[in-house]
């Protein structure tokens, strides 16, 4: 059983939730379901549209993915409901100079595309993570989220990673950090990167 400490989230705020390590099976999807209101939970009240800003990915299988790879603008149009010109503008904002297939993009731009899609989709608050980003990409993602906190507060899911053999978390300094508690395991302490 994982315990989520009580918290509130208002405009201008970011809450960092420290996910336990190792991650219990099915935990991330269950947690996301709770945070966006898909699964009802006693004590949880949502007063706006909370969306996940999942990194862009092509989940098609087989020949469709191989012969006609999903490109960034098409993914943005599908996921965020953007027009073609809005999708191109979003690409330029995150530094993509051309319409790359998603399979050719590293974690940093895919995570930034996820943020753009969530905001375009009408997120009044968002849940995001930086697990597929390198350290400079995590900083860029945090800076992008921080620039929009006045209109869209955020929840950052902080997963433990190891840097030079030491456990660290990608937290944004100056914001509230809360440990999710897995009652079946002792916590593993980490430094903030």
Describe the structure in your own words.
This protein is α/β, with parallel strands linked by helices and 193 residues long. The protein contains 6 helices and 10 strands. The strands form 3 sheets. It has a 5-stranded parallel beta sheet, with helices on one face. A 3-stranded mixed beta sheet has the order 6-7-10, with no helix packed on it. Strands 1-9 form a two-stranded antiparallel sheet. Helix 6 (135-146) links the parallel strand 4 and strand 5 (154-158). Helix 3 (72-80) packs parallel to helix 5 and helix 5 packs parallel to helix 6 (135-146). The longest helix has 14 residues, at 107-120. The model has no long low-confidence stretch (mean pLDDT 87).
Write a brief structural summary.
This protein is α/β, with parallel strands linked by helices. The chain is built from six helices and ten strands; from the N terminus they run ββαβααααβαββββββ.
Low-confidence stretches are: none
Number of helices: 6
User: What is the first-to-last residue Cα distance?
Assistant: 28 Å
* Average predicted local confidence, pLDDT: 87
Q: What is the helical fraction, as a range of percent?
A: 25-40%
Q: State the total count of DSSP E strands.
A: 10
- Order of H and E elements: EEHEHHHHEHEEEEEE
Give the C-alpha Rg.
17 Å
Biggest sheet features: 5 strands, parallel
Helix/strand structural class: alpha/beta
Strand content: 15-25%
């Amino acid at each position: 059983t994982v315990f989520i400490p009580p918290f509130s989230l208002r405009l201008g705020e970011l809450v960092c939730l420290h996910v336990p390590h190792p991650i219990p099976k099915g935990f991330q999807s269950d947690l996301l379901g709770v945070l966006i209101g898909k699964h009802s939970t006693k004590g949880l009240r949502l007063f706006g549209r909370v969306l996940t800003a999942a990194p862009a990915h092509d989940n098609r299988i087989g020949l469709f993915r191989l012969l006609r790879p999903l490109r960034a603008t098409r993914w943005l149009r599908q996921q965020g409901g953007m027009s073609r010109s809005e999708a191109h503008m979003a690409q330029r904002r995150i530094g993509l100079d051309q319409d790359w297939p998603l399979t050719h993009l590293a974690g940093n731009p895919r995570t930034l595309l996820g943020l753009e899609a969530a905001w375009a989709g009408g997120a009044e608050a968002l849940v995001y993570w930086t697990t597929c980003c390198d350290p400079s990409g995590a900083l860029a993602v945090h800076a992008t989220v921080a620039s929009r906190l006045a209109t869209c507060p955020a929840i950052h899911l902080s997963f433990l990673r190891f840097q030079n053999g030491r456990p660290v978390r990608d937290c944004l300094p100056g914001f509230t950090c809360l440990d999710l508690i897995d009652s079946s395991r002792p916590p593993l302490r980490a430094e903030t990167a």
